């Protein structure tokens, strides 16, 4: 499920937890939500993967900002497809400053490393 659909469900239900507590027949009444989007919502494999990801984030002490948090960048709140979570490292002020974000995988290629360190 993508960010747009997930945020639509969360906004309608009030929280991510409430999305999972709702019956699919109720969620299908939300404009723009179809059975394809909800197909794997209750699948234990995805639920277990999400728990494993959360545990990894906590074990590694990874800082993040949720799209409904007060410190989520206001300029991103206006983007329909902005990410639900922003992961960050270090003391970053995301309000009112120009920043560079890097989108990619956890296993960076040598090309990606070289690109990041180019003057």
Order of helices and strands, N to C? HHHHHEHEH
Largest sheet: 2 strands, antiparallel
Strand count: 2
Number of helices: 7
User: Would you tell me the overall average pLDDT?
Assistant: 82
Calculate the terminal CA-CA distance, rounded to whole Å: 37 Å
Order of strands in the sheet with the most strands? Answer: 1-2
The SS-based structural class is mainly alpha
Binned, the helix content reads 40-55%
Determine the strand fraction and express it as a percent band: 5-15%
Shape: globular
Protein name: DNA-processing protein DprA
Family: Belongs to the DprA/Smf family.
Domain Smf/DprA SLOG: 65-116
InterPro entries: DprA, DrpA_SLOG, RuvA_2-like
List its salient traits:
mainly alpha; two-stranded antiparallel ribbon; 7 helices; 7% strand
Structure description:
The protein has 119 residues and is mainly α. The protein has a domain of 57 residues. Helices cover 44% and strands 7% of the residues. The radius of gyration is 17 Å and the shape is globular. InterPro entries: DprA (IPR003488), DrpA_SLOG (IPR057666), RuvA_2-like (IPR010994). This is DNA-processing protein DprA. Belongs to the DprA/Smf family.
Topology of this protein?
Elements: H1 3-13, H2 16-21, H3 24-27, H4 35-38, H5 44-59, E1 63-66, H6 74-77, E2 85-88, H7 110-116
Antiparallel strand pairs: 1-2
In short:
With 119 residues, the protein is mainly alpha-helical.
């Amino acid at each position: 499920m993508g960010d747009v659909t997930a945020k639509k469900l969360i906004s309608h239900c009030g929280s991510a937890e409430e999305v999972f507590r709702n019956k699919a027949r109720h969620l299908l009444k939300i404009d723009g939500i179809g059975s394809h989007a909800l197909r794997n919502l209750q699948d234990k494999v995805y639920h277990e993967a999400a728990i494993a990801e959360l545990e990894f984030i906590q074990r590694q002490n990874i800082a993040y900002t949720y799209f409904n948090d007060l410190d989520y960048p206001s300029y991103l709140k206006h983007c329909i497809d902005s990410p639900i979570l922003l992961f960050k490292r270090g003391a970053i002020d995301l309000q009112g400053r120009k920043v560079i974000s890097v989108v990619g995988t956890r296993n960076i290629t040598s090309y990606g490393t070289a690109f990041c360190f180019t003057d």
